[in-house]
Sequence to fold (466 residues):
Amino acid sequence: MAVLVLVVACCLALGFCICFAMLKWNGIRYGRRKGLPPGTMGWPVFGETTEFLKHGPSFMKKQRARFGSLFKTHILGCPTIVSMDPELNRYILMNEGKGLVPGYPQSMLDILGKCNIAAVHGSAHKHIRGSLLSLIGPLVIKDELLPKIDKFMRSFLSNWNEETIDIQERTNEMALSISFKQIVEKESTSLYETFKPEFDKLLLGTLSLPINIPGTNYHHGFQGRQRIVKMLKQIMEERRASSIAYDDMLDRLLHNEDSKYNLSDEEIIDQIITILYSGYETVSTTSMMAIKYLRDHPKAFQELREEHVAIREKKNPGEAIDWNDYKSMSFTRAVIFETSRLATIVNGVLRKTTEDMVLNGFTIPKGWRIYVYTREINYDPFLYPEPLTFNPWRWLDKNLESHNYCFVFGGGSRLCPGKELGILQISTFLHYFVTSYRWEEAGRNEIHHFPRVEAPKGLHIRISKY
Ligand code: HEM
Fold:
């Protein structure tokens, strides 16, 4: 009996020692490096990923309380430095040239392509970004994209039945198909049905562990990419063989030979995937959350609706909105900024170091990832008094948008090139939605805020026509 007790005690002690050693392993492994910021590294391989994904914002705040606003951790398979220091975050975003380049996960880079904007830096980044701005920048928006967006939105929102709908599903549909139509106008209707499921796979794959075996999200994502590449190559061949000109982004990319932004076929394909990918979740989630906040805040809703009714009153029924109408939507713009801030549609951005570097007195080793975590700045009471209140009026002071620490659309050389396009799409969506429909929330809808904003079972609203 005594022997049995001894054996059990030894096993327990051994188990405890193994667990303890494993928990300390990452700490010991990375602890040898001199000058790193303080922090904990968690379990081998997994690090602190589970705590990070499960408790997100509270995990970050807890670590900041223990270690300060720059700390080390091990998340999503990599040793990572988290910066929650607004001043340092700004420095990092403004100084890509000093070796602080994008540090997005390998799965994302593999699936979005090696010419994807997040995978390139220096002159290659300038080239790809220049081409992108020539397709979606403010000049093109005003003269070419606005009429198309208006037409799309009018038709998209024209005949919703008076019923309970999942607005998350609809805004997802809106955000993807509007970009798709701008890229391949002619083929869009027939191709979209085959394209969408492959794009959904690609999307999931970018957020997975890069393990390429059948059954994994990464494998499916990769297959999705390959099928999308095949479809795009086929359209490109057909367009080159035809003498017909089309008024869409693909045609502009294909007939750009004389421009300084002429791209190879591989670059064109990755550029198209980038536009579809970057403008998808951001635009759809902001639109969905704006609908939610407007329902919950009748005064803001009333002011927004008045803005749009006033525009409609100056027009004939069915007449399109023009640039001046869009420019007059200042309260709508404020609602979009307040929605992005309060919901924190983007929690932060990822960078990595190209060489050892000193930040805030700590040495960050070459190749380490830095999570520029901007979420907490959105709730800073000095910048946004009563930060947990939905108060669009605060954005009517235009200086707030260009405030040094407003990172809703990123900053520095990577500032979102789709910012104005995204705001225009959401504004047009809101214009036709609030002038056509009344709505109320149906049942209780749960919203998750981390790691991404989503309604896991949908956001159901009952709509009726005005
Ligand atoms: C409400 C809508 C949007 C939000 C909140 C948003 C937010 C952001 C943020 C925070 C970044 C910085 C990423 C970084 O520094 O690594 C970014 C970059 C980017 N965004 Fe947006 N975005 C929106 C809409 C769009 C749209 C509609 C497009 C394109 C059609 C777009 C295309 C891009 C691209 C290509 C980049 C990378 C820029 C670069 O690396 O130079 N975004 N966006």
Notes: The first helix runs from residue 2 to 31.
